[in-house]
Design goal:
This protein folds into two domains: about 200 residues, Spore Coat Polysaccharide Biosynthesis Protein SpsA, Chain A; about 90 residues, no CATH class. It is globular, with a radius of gyration of 20 Å. The chain is about 40% helix and about 20% strand. It has nine helices and eleven strands. The strands form two sheets. Strands 1, 2, 3, 4, 5, 6, 7, 8 and 9 form a nine-stranded mixed beta sheet that branches. The chain has a two-stranded antiparallel sheet with strand order 10-11. The protein is α/β, with parallel strands linked by helices and about 300 residues long.
Length: about 300
């Protein structure tokens, strides 16, 4: 294969249940001839190694397979995917998520047709079983552009120009669950994002993922990220104490800590403006929600006694 135009960021750990289907679906991509999958495979089973080796024999040069004997945090795995990638365009594609066959080609064409655009995202469906292709549609067409730096609007299948990372920085390796959201915010600060109407794929939420399982760090890391970017009106302050165990204002890459102020324009001014605009409003909302939660708990207990 000639130099690929697109490389996927595909960390992989404990994915035996999904990997065979992922590999079977991969050649169905209409952009397959110019696509490279960067599979960072942590602690793989023997069966998984056999399946990937067979795929490489059938489709040479389409999977760059890094076998990691231990398990690294997902941010380290994703940054390794970036380092090993050859394409000028990067896209997220997790093994337990299914893409529609035209999704990558549609995103590539949108970037080709809009040289001023750096990030492409679109609709997707959330499913609760694998490999189901029926779920609840997520359509962000009515979400204002300003939310790109305040919510995870880009979704699980976004594509972006690799060159954007020189401004935004890479994944923060201290996060175990929220590193994709954190990067999405920084990318949106530096690049223009465009939504396309395509259904890009099927995001699996069966309660077992790093951000969806019961003991997930997702709520705590979400709080840390919202603190980092001054999204004070959305914070669940019950997670504040644990969130402060993270280095909020620094990003970890390898052994280096990088100041967020070096990655976000007018960072200090932005935090100050957001504090004046949103902090009191957010804390009051949290207190109202907590009071309502206690009321609901009381009513529930009261009903049980009737």
């Amino acid at each position: 294969m000639k130099k690929p135009l697109v490389s996927t960021i595909t960390p992989c750990y404990n994915m035996k249940k999904y990997l065979k289907t992922f590999l079977a679906e991969l050649p169905n991509q209409t952009f397959f001839d110019s696509l490279e999958v960067i599979l960072d495979h942590n602690a793989p089973s023997e069966d998984e190694l056999v399946w990937v080796k067979q795929f490489q024999a059938d489709y040479p040069d389409h999977i760059r397979h890094m076998v990691i004997p231990h398990v690294d945090p997902i941010g380290i795995s994703m940054n390794r995917c970036i380092r090993e990638s050859s394409g000028d365009l990067l896209c997220i594609w997790n093994v337990d998520d299914l893409r529609t066959p035209e999704s990558i080609e549609a995103q590539v064409n949108a970037l080709k047709d809009n040289q001023s655009v750096d990030i492409i995202y679109g609709n997707y469906e959330v499913t609760n079983s694998f490999p189901s292709k029926k779920g609840k549609l997520v359509d962000h067409s009515q979400i204002p552009e300003s939310e790109l730096t305040r919510s995870m609007i880009l979704g699980p299948f976004f594509m972006f120009r690799k060159s954007l990372l020189f401004k935004s920085g890479k994944f923060d390796e201290q996060f175990k669950s929220g590193c994709d959201f954190d990067l999405a915010i920084r990318l949106a600060f530096h690049g223009k994002a465009k939504r396309i109407d395509e259904n890009l794929g099927y995001y699996l939420n069966e309660g077992l993922g790093a951000s969806t399982r019961k003991e997930s760090l997702q709520p705590v890391e979400l709080t840390a990220i919202e603190l980092r970017y001054g999204i004070y009106e959305k914070i669940d302050y019950s997670h504040l104490q644990k969130a402060l165990n993270y280095r909020i204002y620094e990003l970890l890459n390898g052994n280096a800590w990088i100041s967020i102020a070096n990655l976000i324009p007018r960072y200090s001014e932005m935090l100050e403006e957001n504090k004046n605009t949103y902090l009191e409003k957010g804390m009051n909302k949290f207190l109202r929600d907590m009071r309502m939660k206690k009321v609901c708990e009381f009513i529930s207990k009261f009903k049980q006694r009737l």
